[in-house]
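Morning. Coffee machine broken again, so started the prediction first thing and wrote up yesterday's gels while waiting. Chain of 516 residues, entered below exactly as on the submission form.
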Amino acid sequence: MNLHERSAGVLLHITSLPGPHGIGDFGPEAFHFVDWLHACGQKVWQLLPTTPIGPGDSPYQSVSAFAGSPLMVALEPLVERGWLDHPEPPEAGFDAARVDFGRVVPWRLQQLRAAAAGYEALATDADRKAFLAWCQAESGWLDDYALFMALETAHAGKAWWDWAAPLARRDKKALAAARKAHAPEVTFWKFVQWSFDTQCTALKKYANDRGVYIMGDLPIFIAHHSADCWARPDLYTLDENFQPTVVAGVPPDDLGPLGQRWGNPLYLWDKMADEGFAWWAARVRRMLHQADAFRIDHFRGFAGYFEIPSSSPTAQQGRWLKGPGKPLFDAIAKALGELPIVAEDLGFITPDVTDLRDSLGYPGMKILQFAFGGDGEHEFLPHTYERNVVVYSGTHDNDTARGWWDNAKEHERRFAGTYLACGAHDAHWAMIRAALNSVANVAIFPMQDVLGLPSEHRMNTPGTLGGSNWTWRFDWGMVGNEPGRVLGLMTAASGRGAFHLLGVPIPARPTSPPSY
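Came back before lunch.
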């Protein structure tokens, strides 16, 4: 994917897709969404992190920076292979509009365990050979992850530092004994990851064959309770009991007098540098196997990051420290080649962040919802853009465009109404049009904005846990023909798509299951 070419796309997480099994996945609806994007002239499908969810059902606090979410593994191809009977949803069924993680997670894992048993009983020699080859190719992260998950299951979900000391400290004899004792469980988690990878690869190929590129999302930090931290505790700011001495976050600002204390352990950048940033190169290699480009979260942390004492309950105490800077990305590029990265450069941005981004040539981000709180020189107003940016009406962390209009301050609404020539009924289309007509190389819009949905359809509210965060799903009944037709025409008129979209019907669903 060339981030320097003029293009447009839609932000929609895999879990927000329709489907019969409680949560969006890599099943037929994902392929149908690619067809819809293609018909609308869209070249980019941006996802949120596809790693397993963590506390608060967030993919930004995952048990692995390398693994894929078991919840995204589609059941249809497992049925097609004969490894799983047609799954019967729970008696009460699933909510089509929201993901009920409390019900979906155990049910999906039950289906995956049944499929793994079916594989063991019925897999062909070719299947087994493919599985073994994949496990060997991915062993650098897979072996530790699968054992971590097996041990977490055996310890009833306890954090890894509370496991038996030999396991927490990774005593070689204890690990060897654990691999033998938990071999079936280790194999199960490897099977789930193989299924994820196979399906993710199939979807990416289907999209690429139709001129649609996948943009992933890479969180900057890892979770404390994760296979990554357990496997290499020497890469993080941990004490002798494996507890963080300092944690990540951002200091107080106009949006929060207490700042944000994220709690992630911080990297020992000098140690990583001594190893040639090999862990980061491996992580980016994994991302580029799943996506054509990716947004890297909290890019400012690579120039300078905020260190909070672990004893502090808020981010009011802390200090700024210098990040790894350009040598990190140079090392990754040396190992992997040119990096198709979008730098999430929002928030408290200092000249060193801008200098780092520009020295690497990465596009930054502009958010239209942030443009109307000042005057006509605000850097997020479209007439101020340079080409090397990605513009959004909003992101997963923002209100929907329609919700923003409804909840904006009066002077923001007046300014936006004047600048965009819109009112409440068409603010979402006005934002989309302004972004598309800007000089920004890439313009991306949350699916909620394309559909003109109000606040209750937003994906996430930062600084909050639970509730409706990460649960939103759409259905095709919300879509109809009109949003796709209008989006296609606007995209074509702005020079980002083929100028032939006089009417864009929703493409028919595939008549046969995709080939996985």
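The longest strand covers residues 213-218. Going to sketch it on the whiteboard this afternoon.
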